[in-house]
Amino acid sequence: MASGGGGGGGMEAVEVRFRLDDGSDIGPSMHDQATTVTALKEFVLARWPQGKEIAPRTVNDVTIINAGQVLENNRTLAESRNLAAESPEGPITMHVVVRRSRPERRVKQPPKARPPERIGCGCTIL
Prior knowledge:
Elements: E1 14-19, E2 25-31, H1 37-46, E3 62-66, E4 69-70, H2 77-80, E5 92-98
Parallel strand pairs: 1-5
Antiparallel strand pairs: 1-2, 3-4, 3-5
């Protein structure tokens, strides 16, 4: 098995291919159905192709989508599968999205308060 993530309990392994945003793939590879989505993300992160312009730094930078559904980290592969959308032959293709790291924002300091302008009033005493 390519990755673990819990007791197998006799579940059949599943062949998964991870499709990257440029159309290239990681895999296909076999994964136990008890494997968590977090473990799948770690698998993808460890095998990320070198030299890509956008690369994840942590599992939090990676989102995996299967059959149009974003997979939750704490769920297993068995819980995340959509049998109606899968082909009986060949690997399951899961899409990998990398969230671009946001540049650190500098906190804008509020502009310095200017003293209120004096609005003059002309009074004439007769």
